[in-house]
Design a protein that fits this description.
Layout (H helix, E strand, L loop, with lengths): L1 E4 L7 H18 L5 E4 L6 H9 L2 E4 L1 H6 L11 E4 L6 H9 L3 E4 L3 H16 L2 E5 L5 H7 L6 E3 L2 H10 L5 E5 L5 H14 L3 E3 L5 H14 L4 E5 L5 H12 L3 E5 L14 E6 L5 H19 L1
Length: 296
């Protein structure tokens, strides 16, 4: 059995930066008895979140921050790290009012989207966010505007475009969606709305992982997609692998390795943008060890 890694895989720049900032905050705070929290799970990967928890980095419930601050722990003097997805302006204000010190680990590309949303709203344009309305990044950008809307695919895009046909619209994509999904929405708005612009906000890391997966699929018989089951960009990698016609599995850890996987001569590995390096290495080692056991 041959194992082939994708040319580009695993943690993107924004997620890696957020993790490093959280780790550094935990290291500095521990010596002074300062508590460290993250605004929601820092990374869409349960294993990475658990590792941070072991270092003393605890998770604040985003919904509680937004709706019921009385249920939060005492944040006076505590550090709160804003995750790469960003946060609403109201959430940051609430945390600061409770006495927390903010470390902003928002991905620079998400900050760009937040700024664009505010810019177009000041111009009087309708801001249309393209992505998953439940995703932390989209929720955060919404919290930087007063009346932006979200479309999550062609159906909702058609409805919105018809309603906004005479309104200048600015489309801003969630950084982790697939380009073809964004292009489909852009096409609908171009055909319907008189004045519109589509900003280029999809992160290159997303495109690179998708393109690298397509390249990988030309070299292998089956593929493992590694990442959190709650990671949208990992789910999209899995979907793309299936669209390439490859046998594919979406797994989080080496414990999910099954004998069926080593029946293939060439098996590929790729990973979502929030998957730590150590998990990718553990999965590759588990495949190698299982292959040796079967051979023996």
């Amino acid at each position: 059995m041959q194992i082939v890694r994708a040319r580009v895989l695993g943690m993107c720049m924004g997620v890696r930066r957020a993790e490093e900032l959280a780790r550094q905050a935990a290291k500095n705070a521990s010596a002074h008895g300062i508590r460290v929290y993250t605004y929601g799970p820092l990374i869409h990967n349960p294993q990475a979140v658990a590792e941070l928890e072991a270092l003393g980095v605890h998770v604040l419930d985003v919904n509680v921050v937004e709706t019921d601050t009385a249920s939060l722990p005492d944040l006076r003097g505590a550090i709160v790290v804003i995750r790469a997805h960003g946060a609403s302006l109201s959430a940051i204000s609430r945390l600061e009012a409770l006495g927390a010190r903010i470390i902003d680990a928002t991905c620079p590309r998400v900050i760009k989207s937040q700024r664009l949303a505010r810019h177009y709203e000041k111009l009087g344009w309708k801001v249309v966010l393209v992505g998953d309305p439940r995703h932390g990044e989209i929720a955060g950008i919404l919290g930087h505007t007063s009346d932006a809307i979200v479309v999550d695919g062609p159906d909702s895009a058609r409805t919105a475009a018809i309603a906004l046909r005479d309104t200048p619209c600015a489309l801003i994509a969630q950084t982790t969606i697939r380009q073809e999904d964004y292009d489909a929405v852009i096409g609908i708005f171009q055909a319907t709305v008189a004045h519109m612009i589509a900003e280029k906000t999809i992160c290159p890391a997303t495109r690179e992982r998708q393109q690298s997966l397509v390249e990988l699929c030309g070299q292998i018989d089956a593929v493992l997609i590694v990442g959190g089951k709650n990671s949208e960009n990992t789910k999209r990698l899995f979907q793309s692998a299936q669209e390439c016609g490859k046998v594919a599995w979406h797994i989080e850890t080496a414990s999910e390795i099954i004998p069926e996987m080593i029946q293939y001569s060439r098996i590929g590995i790729t990973a979502g943008a929030s998957t730590p390096d150590f998990i990718i290495d553990e999965i590759q080692d588990a495949l190698v060890n299982l292959s040796k056991e079967v051979t023996l």
